[in-house]
Write a structure and sequence with these properties.
By secondary structure, this protein is mainly alpha-helical. It has one domain (2-50). Helices cover 84% and strands 0% of the residues. Residues 1-36 are annotated as: Disordered.
Length: 51
Amino acid sequence: MESSHVNALQSKHAGIDARIREEESRPAPDTATIQALKKQKLRLKEELEMQ
């Protein structure tokens, strides 16, 4: 059960990472969006480290 939770967190982490790269590649990236995504990514990373 815990393994599926870890897999879900890793999947979300990868998805957020892709969204950050996508936003950064835009001609005029939205820095507020990037900051929010990075905060989400950090929270997921911290949760993964606790597993």
